[in-house]
Fold:
Amino acid sequence: MQPPDEHPPSTRQEELRTFLFLTVVTAPVLAVMVVGGYGFLVWMYQLITGDLPG
Structure:
């Protein structure tokens, strides 16, 4: 005898809501964090060495 399923299978509406959240909120926030982090690293490099990388 198998235990009852605790979570029912996801519905199409839940999947659509999750997809929209990932594409509208998570992806732009992650992109801003990556670009901002790179800019911060270049800025710190310039402060320490006094010249541009590359």
Remarks:
- The first helix runs from residue 12 to 49.
- The mean pLDDT is 89.
- The two ends are 65 Å apart (CA to CA).
- The CA atoms of residues 18 and 24 lie 10 Å apart.
